[in-house]
């Protein structure tokens, strides 16, 4: 790491620590939201630099890779985002020939989308880089701590859904 990058990183960590310290430790939702926002910013910058994609476009590609051929509604449901956001992303991705749309065989007013070969290449390239980021982000955690964090977050998610089951479409 270059000296100026190191200084910038230290200043950023100090600013983060100050923000974190201003919120009570029991305000876990705030801390999770802060982490989420930071991850979004880093991800948005990375996918923009790597593949000239917006964050919404990247997430749409990633969900398409996971789901295979599907509808925009299915992507929106899985990602917990507005269908209009997915539709805009799909329109941009279609213009770049990264996705294709085809008529839905059972729903006359619906279309199915899938990744093109080029879309699969873009996904593979970005996903490979993302994997390196993920490993870097958790490098200070032991395997046991990673499992404990995953377990704790799963319990929180389940509890949230038990309290508000209507947030899940099924």
TrEMBL record:
<dbReference type="InterPro" id="IPR036390">
    <property type="entry name" value="WH_DNA-bd_sf"/>
</dbReference>
<dbReference type="InterPro" id="IPR036388">
    <property type="entry name" value="WH-like_DNA-bd_sf"/>
</dbReference>
<dbReference type="InterPro" id="IPR000835">
    <property type="entry name" value="HTH_MarR-typ"/>
</dbReference>
<dbReference type="InterPro" id="IPR039422">
    <property type="entry name" value="MarR/SlyA-like"/>
</dbReference>
<dbReference type="Pfam" id="PF12802">
    <property type="entry name" value="MarR_2"/>
</dbReference>
<feature type="domain" description="HTH marR-type">
    <location>
        <begin position="25"/>
        <end position="158"/>
    </location>
</feature>
<protein>
    <submittedName>
        <fullName>MarR family transcriptional regulator</fullName>
    </submittedName>
</protein>
